[in-house]
Structure formats: structure tokens, C-alpha cells
Amino acid sequence: MSRIFIAVDLPSSVRGELIDVLSSFEGFKLKLVSPELIHITLKFLGEVSDDMVSDIASSLDGIECMPFNANIKGVGVFPNLSSPRVVWLGAKGNFKQLHDDVEASLSRLDFEKDKREFTAHATLGRIKFMPKGQMEGFLAVLDKLKEVDLGEIKVDKVLLMKSTLTPYGPVYETMHEVLLGRK
């Protein structure tokens, strides 16, 4: 069994700027994601038998979405400001069609479609509990970063990724790469 997800990777030009964004949250009670691991998840499949990976890869090869430019912009939280659990970096572009193509390609393999509406984002950190004394400062940092602009990226490939959980954090391995617009 492998823990699998489908993602769009961020280029190194964005990762460099991510370090500055992440450093804004130092001192707050949240678990930040390492800059080299930050990505835009299109679909999390969870534990999948290893013999299904090639079928998943073949299905993803059928994605019809063409390459597109996307803006990596804005920092916010899920589910809301009064009860933040996830700190995210926004992504604006043709991600809805790309996500729908991924869903359609995997539905043939009986993967359930996501129940929540898809929102393109990259997770920057997770919050289990924010002490009341830190909340005001945390919200001030969020307000300062809500319009941060890390620039434009070219979305021209989708990655099938394996995530291995370790005591030191997850280790990601690319299992398959789908180049968009190559059908």
C-alpha cells in the first residue's frame, strides 16, 4: 500500500519567496510545511494498493486540460478566521478544469469525487491550537499577507506523488508525471 496524491509542484522561483512568507509565522503555535514540500494538491487518494498505481498513472495520462498560467497570490486560512486550522497560499488559474479532469480520469477507477468544492491552494501550515494571547498577532500577520503576490507560474504538468510519513515529516516521491497538452 502507498499513500498517494495528485499535485502541481511549485517552481524554485516561488519556493525562494515562500521562505519569507513562512518566516512571518515564526513564534506562533503552528506546524509549518517545509518550503521544498509545498505543492497544490489536486486530489488526495490516500492508501492505494501498489498494483493500482500503474492504472492510476494511465488514467491520468488522459487529462485533456491544456497548460495555463497561474498566479500564486494571497494567504488565508481554512475554515475561517475565528477558528483557523490550515494556513494556505492561494492559486488562481484554470485549476477548476484541471481538477475536474483529474476527477473524471479517476472516476473510471471507482475513486469517489471530492465532496467539498475544490479550492486551489498550497498548504503552508496546520494549527492544532492557537493560544488566545497569540491570536491577535497571528491575525495581523494574515492581514499583512492577504494580498502577497509570489508571481505567475506555468502549470504544464501534473504529478502522481507518493507520501511516506516519517517521524521527521513526510517524504515525497514522484511516481508519474503527466505533461499537459501532449495528447
From TrEMBL:
<dbReference type="InterPro" id="IPR004175">
    <property type="entry name" value="RNA_CPDase"/>
</dbReference>
<dbReference type="Pfam" id="PF02834">
    <property type="entry name" value="LigT_PEase"/>
</dbReference>
<dbReference type="GO" id="GO:0016874">
    <property type="term" value="F:ligase activity"/>
</dbReference>
<feature type="domain" description="Phosphoesterase HXTX">
    <location>
        <begin position="8"/>
        <end position="88"/>
    </location>
</feature>
<feature type="short sequence motif" description="HXTX 2">
    <location>
        <begin position="121"/>
        <end position="124"/>
    </location>
</feature>
<protein>
    <recommendedName>
        <fullName>RNA 2',3'-cyclic phosphodiesterase</fullName>
        <ecNumber>3.1.4.58</ecNumber>
    </recommendedName>
</protein>
<keyword id="KW-0378">Hydrolase</keyword>
<dbReference type="InterPro" id="IPR009097">
    <property type="entry name" value="Cyclic_Pdiesterase"/>
</dbReference>
<feature type="active site" description="Proton acceptor">
    <location>
        <position position="121"/>
    </location>
</feature>
<dbReference type="InterPro" id="IPR014051">
    <property type="entry name" value="Phosphoesterase_HXTX"/>
</dbReference>
<feature type="short sequence motif" description="HXTX 1">
    <location>
        <begin position="39"/>
        <end position="42"/>
    </location>
</feature>
<feature type="active site" description="Proton donor">
    <location>
        <position position="39"/>
    </location>
</feature>
<comment type="similarity">
    <text>Belongs to the 2H phosphoesterase superfamily. ThpR family.</text>
</comment>
<dbReference type="GO" id="GO:0004113">
    <property type="term" value="F:2',3'-cyclic-nucleotide 3'-phosphodiesterase activity"/>
</dbReference>
<feature type="domain" description="Phosphoesterase HXTX">
    <location>
        <begin position="93"/>
        <end position="172"/>
    </location>
</feature>
<dbReference type="GO" id="GO:0008664">
    <property type="term" value="F:RNA 2',3'-cyclic 3'-phosphodiesterase activity"/>
</dbReference>
<comment type="function">
    <text>Hydrolyzes RNA 2',3'-cyclic phosphodiester to an RNA 2'-phosphomonoester.</text>
</comment>
<keyword id="KW-0436">Ligase</keyword>
